[in-house]
Design goal:
This protein has 240 residues and is an alpha+beta fold. It has two domains: 152 residues, Jelly Rolls; 76 residues, Arc Repressor Mutant, subunit A. Strands 1-2-9-4-7 form a five-stranded antiparallel sheet. A four-stranded antiparallel sheet has the order 3-8-5-6. α1 crosses α2, α4 packs across α5 and α6 crosses α8. The longest helix is centred in the middle third of the chain and has 25 residues. The N terminus is likely disordered.
Length: 240
């Protein structure tokens, strides 16, 4: 585990209050919140500090951001593409992993860094799951929280069906790879507009407009016969 300043939260009422304001811990009995804190640990990270390096995260704990923010990077081992997401205060990373206990190999491509100076609560996954099994109020909160997350993803996916540019960017995302020499993200050779149109389910004019907008926004720049992705995080957001 990377070095970070640590502070026990077993009897820290300020942490109890902080967790009580964050879904899925809202409206829990004080006794349950106290038990949750006993299974938790507070860690502070400086900007840019590694929380989990590549291959280190094993799903054994999940993270609640109290302040600051975390940058989660997920590498695609097949093409080197990188999905980057930032989460801010009162957001949680890894709760669904803690509950579902998936195969650890499914998230061994994850890297987590502090985007800025951050305070994080780290909760042991096994102990949390055991506590949830003993406390129906906590299990109900978890079920409601995860259901809301699932619904949000589902409706976002359905909405994307009416967003041609987003579908074009999602298709292009599969073409992005990292240059092993200069480290930049790039599409070495742009697919033909007709090919992209078939992949995204839009017409060729829609493809041309989407690619032009990507360049106008400064997210990418032309480098014949491909593109350089100047802002991979923004590109990921546009494709999702």
């Amino acid at each position: 585990m990377p070095l970070a300043s640590r502070e026990s939260v077993s009897v820290d009422e300020s942490i109890v209050a902080s967790l009580a304001s964050i879904a899925p811990f809202q409206d829990l009995p004080d006794a349950v919140l106290s038990l949750l804190c006993e299974r938790s640990e507070r860690r502070s990270y400086s900007a840019g500090q590694t929380v989990f390096s590549l291959g280190q995260y094993d799903g054994g704990e999940f993270l609640v951001v109290l302040s600051g923010g975390l940058r989660i990077s997920v590498a695609d081992p097949t093409n080197g593409a990188m999905l980057i997401e930032e989460i801010g205060p009162h957001h949680i990373f890894g709760l669904e992993i803690a509950i579902a206990e998936p195969d650890p190999s499914s998230f061994e491509q994850i890297t987590i860094n502090a985007a800025v100076e951050s305070d994080v609560i780290v909760i042991d996954a096994a102990e949390f799951k055991a506590l949830a099994g003993e406390r129906p109020s906590l299990m109900r909160n978890i079920a409601g929280f995860l259901a809301e997350q699932l619904a949000a993803v589902r409706f976002k996916t359905e909405a994307a069906q009416s967003a041609p540019a987003q579908r074009v960017y999602a298709a292009l995302l599969n073409c992005v790879e990292r240059d092993r020499v200069d480290g930049r993200w790039r599409i070495r050779k742009m697919p033909k507009h007709r090919e992209l149109a078939d992949r995204a389910g839009v017409d060729e004019a829609g493809v041309a407009e989407a690619v032009a907008a990507l360049i106008q926004k400064g997210v990418a720049q032309r480098e014949y016969p491909g593109l350089i992705i100047r802002d991979m995080q923004a590109f990921n957001r546009l494709a999702r």
